[in-house]
Design goal:
The structure holds 2 protein chains of 2 kinds. By secondary structure, chain A is of the alpha/beta class. In chain A, 35% of the residues lie in helices and 19% in strands. The longest helix of chain A has 20 residues. Chain B is an alpha/beta fold. Helices cover 49% and strands 16% of the residues of chain B. The chains are: A alpha/beta, B alpha/beta.
Chain lengths: 286, 318
Amino acid sequence: MSWFEKLIPSRIRTEANSKRAVPEGLWHKCPGCGAVLYRAELERNLEVCPKCNYHNRIGARRRLDLFLDDEPREEIGSDLESVDPLRFKDLKKYKDRLSQAQKLTSEKEALVVMRGQVQQVGCVAAAFEFSFMGGSMGSVVGERFVRGVDAALQDDLAMVCFSASGGARMQESLFSLLQMAKTSAALGRLRERGLPFISVMTDPTMGGVSASLAMLGDINIAEPNALIGFAGPRVIEQTVREKLPEGFQRSEFLLEHGALDQICDRRDLRERIADLVAMLTGRPRP
Amino acid sequence: MDLNFLPFEQPVAELEAKIDELRHVGDDNEINIAEEIAHLETKSRALTQQIFSALTPWQISQLSRHPQRPYFLDYVRRVFDDFQELHGDRAFADDPAIVGGLARLDGRPVMIIGHQKGRDTKEKIVRNFGMPRPEGYRKALRLMQMAERFRLPIFTFIDTPGAYPGVGAEERGQSEAIARNLQVMAGLRVPIIVTVTGEGGSGGALAIGVGDRLVMLQYSTYSVISPEGCASILWKSAEKAQLAAEAMAITSDRLYELDLVDVVVPEPLGGAHRDVDTMAAMLKKVLIECAAELDPIPLPQLLESRYEALRGYGRFKD
């Protein structure tokens, strides 16, 4: 207690560290602008800060829930489960990392795929769960994605994917590397058939996911200020030994360099994508 | 320490040094010590055999990046004839980390493309240590699509630490360049035979690695990330690279067991760099055999089985 605080009579003294009695999670401090936001308002804005437009990360299921019409929805490949083909163990066993991620996210794997509709236009939509081992792509993620593509091929649907991933899953080594080829080949079939693939890159989309399915959209869209790239900024900094330019590997940087078709606010995504798909497939505006 | 030998080969290096010494003595004194030399040579061979019969994945990973390991152009000279290099991506630059061009294999015109590392410091820098930039992958794509137009089989050779992690590479779309190659190669209407000759480093390797046959030289490696990279992320210390090399199954024998590789080409005793001519001759034979296997397959069937193989990658519970 400082000398000044000692002078204050005890009845008007307040405990320095005492938290005010506010229920947990009622307020949210924006990491972008520091504004204190009412949780319900943030939710209404799809986790986008209404003051500064900061896009908070959201989970796969929430993402699909916001994107797809309420009905119909059918999950694809939900029974698929990871195995541990190499009996991989680093500081922890891969099996343990998997069950820990499952507990944390209530998901079985890092990608959720659904057949559904967006504003009454049929589509298959996939979304990465970044909280599940960094949204890393292993065998199950690759297989679910390709089953999604298969469903799109079978029913002549558009495919939409929301990426959020650190890249390939090291614990499955070459199996995960090869998911890059597998998913890209499947998207090739979609392309041959003239079915649209809309790739939405969200924060972050890196490594093996960025260098395969995410960059192969007929239309590549990103949410504002998402980190998107092949190599991570730290790796690049260590390699070139210089400070990286401001805004490097952010959506705006990629748009400027020609890698993206558009940057789109999350609150407009559903409508925009529905109309893009409608135009590409010769339908009237939904 | 002899830098031509890796740390685990030092006992052999010592013997070889002794043999060299004896040879010099022989020159000077005209004493017949041939017998002694022959004896030591036998011993050296036996020792090499012993060391190489039980290599760890980490040692193999070092061999795959041995400073004397034969690089793409060393094989081009020995395996192919009439090589004419074709440069440039027609959009931005020519990337010397990937070399490509037309050549003949056993008299037949083919397209060949490979990563190229540099031998001395100057060349290493020019070749960017075999780490391609997007223009390298786009050159490869251009050449592969040319091969498709002229119905030439494609042979690619992988030997890279990975795609270059640089500012310019990101600006010019490293991710897109790799992704595009994966997608196009999956549907190219000519046979593609892929060989890993050295270091198969991640997406930068795979970007010229989608095909109908995957061949690996015995002491080459293929993995999703370098052992050092994996160790620094998962073990929080690059020093644990040895453990990462074990855990990731990066060697040709493990990958063959896992059914991810079609052919493993044995290397001469002590590794490819100890006898490049023999290595190249063995590789040539395998490449001709692979091409002969693929030739009679009708195109739709070739494409279907390539797709089925890609579709089948991965292990999971259904």
